[in-house]
Amino acid sequence: MASRIPDFYIVGHAKCGTTALTAMVRKHPQIAMPVKEPRFFSPELRTRYWRPPSNRRRHPSTLDGYRALFEGLAPDLTIGEASTTYLRSSTAAGRIAEVKPDARIIAILREPTAFLRSFHLQSLRNYDESQRSFRKAIELEPLRREGRRMPRFSQVPSAVFYSDHIRYVEQLERFHAVFPREQVLVLIYDDLRADNEATVRRVLGFLGVEDSGFTVPRAELETLKMPRSVALDQITRLAAYAPRNRALRPLLKAGARTGVGRLGPVWRRALYEDRPPADEDFDQELRRRFKGDVQAASEYLGRDLVSLWGYDELD
Questions:
Q1: pTM for this one?
Q2: How far apart are CA 296 and CA 160, in angstroms?
Q3: What CA–CA distance (Å, rounded) separates 263 from 277?
Q4: What is the DSSP letter of 62?
Q5: What gap in Å lies between CA 45 and CA 59, rounded to an integer?
Q6: Which of 104, 110, 188, 250 is the most interior residue, by most CB within 10 Å?
């Protein structure tokens, strides 16, 4: 069977329910989503580091390589992919429209402060952030825009320009500039969290697939732990994902022989701890900072996000 370009795209952001939505939607018998996070249409936001051949196949740099990800799928299936970088990317909307002008786009928005706090933790786990304190990471943004105090091992340095993620109207406008409004569905994270089934059925209707008789599977929204030591977390994960490194092979083999895998829960407790409670004063400070963005998004979407997210209660 010939390769195809996906019919729909779940475009992000990270930590806004994209993984959960993908997990539920891909269970539909008329839908195929064989890969997640190929990031093909946002080349400026791909990792800057070396990738093994298997990883390069999942993250192709050519259109032929991208098509190959969807090779062999039945012609009657609706094909999709999800990449959390597409909404933030300044080029993804245009790139998708160029090869698939009839594509369906699904975006998910989340209350900015909760989103950034969760995204900061994800960035720590992805090596894009090195500052454990959420407040300090946000406060470093001006210096980092000048190229100072950047995380040494960051795969995508611009990921720590946190305020760029909250430009919801600007991000949606890029898609509306190249796709008709009826081809862009904007979801709100709160709705997905409150009612998985209703949200998924709304998505299925948007995609034009039959939903009668389909039981929507439940998908838990991921809760990450905080690394006790960023450096130790990075060393541990690099060891796990670097079998090509000859110096590490004996260690990895020894770990397999001695059953380190069975000590996984103990090791995880040693490496990770629960995320610290939110700093309410700093959260309020951020909410005041992003209130204008929330008001603009409310007006743009015709939905009162100001009240939904509690921004009307700010003094």
A1: 0.85
A2: 23
A3: 28
A4: S
A5: 12
A6: 110
